[in-house]
Amino acid sequence: ALPSGRTTYRHLYEYEYELKELARKNPNLVRAFTAAEPTIEGRDVVGIEIATDVNNLADGKAIDFVMGVHHAREWPAGEHAIEWAYELVNGYRADPSIRSLVGKTRNIIVPIVNPDGFSISREAEPKGDFSRFDYEMKRKTCEPADSPPQFRTGVCMANPGGAQRGTDPNRNYAGFWGGNGAGLNWNSETFRGSQPFSEPETRNIRDIVSKRQVTNLITLHTFSGLVLRPPGVADVRPPLDEPTFKALGDKLASRNGYTSEPSWGLYDTTGTTEDWSYWATGGYGFTFEIGTVAFHPPYQDGVVAEYTGVAPALGAGKGGNRQAFLDMLANTADP
Ligand code: 0X9
Ligand code: ZN
User: Fold this and answer.
1) Is the CB of 122 under 6 A from ligand 1?
2) Over the stretch 57-89, which tens digit does the pLDDT of each residue have?
């Protein structure tokens, strides 16, 4: 079972409500926050921070940052992030080893980086000529970006074939922005945006990573069973500390049963989260591609099994993402 006991995919309002409730019920341990900028459709991006004496922001502790749902249709990414929050809050009371790890770190969690896109996908209904599926499989943000004026009005429209209005938030960071593996046109599924950090969604993450001591981050996506590390593109130099980076990625992958590799092994991408954060700050950053079958499979498969590690597909002895996140946190904690 999951730390929260959840058995179905959350709606956007449930994420917000639950994060704020966790903070309200645990005032010294959990702080809810709203990211610097609202989205183009006016939504708040809500996160929480979990630490002993959480409001003492300048206590100098290293930060572990877990985020989900850059991509709208990748619902399990948000679920794994919020379940990790419950894991830490529950564990702080009930599990001495988790209490110890929380005591040595600060934990920032933003389950839904792209709430405009997520709410379109999660609440998908047929509209006009477009089927429910066109909306449910939305990937990008709702930014009008360089789209023609007729696409800037009304709801965040999807259209057939998946060529949707919006910017790909995982091509809009400054890391190698403008290189291979990112679309140049507004209707590309990997549209990079008009310039690095042209979108509020990526500026919000830049703000957190730049202002705080983020030592390790995991950005959650679906699907392919991967633990990816920089670089995202083949024609750049790998991190100077690639051996250490690889060792950590391999360790996380030994827990969730995924494949550990540099991101460019999947395909070239530029402007991704950790290709910016690593070269901007030196903090470690990984992309987890959760699951093996679909962007949002049935909850039991995409969330419960992948989080707890009991899925037959993961194989005996695998701890699932719960254990991978705990290993990441142990890596963040002072000895
Ligand atoms: O293309 C992406 O943004 C990611 N795959 S997804 O199916 N979730 O869209 C992969 C990104 C891999 N590259 C880096 N993380 N650098
Ligand atoms: Zn993704």
Assistant:
1) no
2) 999 999 999 999 999 999 999 999 999 999 999
Name the active-site residue from 79, 87, 143, 289: 289
Q: Which atom of ligand 1 is nearest to the CA of 170?
A: 3
Handedness of CA 85, 86, 87, 93 (dihedral sign): positive
HSE (CB half, 13 Å, CA atoms) of 21? 9
Q: Is 71 in the pocket of ligand 1 (CB under 6 A)?
A: yes
Q: Indicate whether 217 pLDDT > 80.
A: yes
pTM for the whole thing?
0.96
Q: pLDDT at residue 191 above 80?
A: yes
Q: Report how far ligand 1's centroid is from the alpha carbon of 99 (Å).
A: 33
Q: What percent of the chain has pLDDT over 90?
A: 82
Could you write out the DSSP letters of every residue in 81-132? Answer: HHHHHHHHHHHHHH-HHHHHHHHT-EEEEES-S-HHHHHHHHT---BTTB-H
Backbone CA torsion sign across 194, 197, 201, 203: negative
Maximum alpha-carbon separation in the chain = 58
**Smallest CA separation from ligand 1 atom 3, residue:** 170
| DSSP state, residue 182 | -
212 phi, psi to nearest 5 deg: -120, 170
Instruction: For residue 228, give the ligand 1 atom closest to its CA.
Output: 15
Q: Which ligand is nearest to the CA of 272?
A: 1
Q: Is 57 in the pocket of ligand 1 (CB under 6 A)?
A: no
Task: For residues 29-34, give the mean pLDDT.
Answer: 98
What's the distance, Cα to Cα, between the start and end of the chain in Å? Answer: 30
In the residue annotation, 49 being an active-site residue is answered as no
Q: Which residue has 């959840």 as its token pair?
A: 6
Q: Is 308 in the pocket of ligand 1 (CB under 6 A)?
A: no
In this prediction, residue 209 carries a pLDDT of: 98
Q: Identify whether the C-beta of residue 225 lies closer than 8 Å to the C-beta of residue 260.
A: no
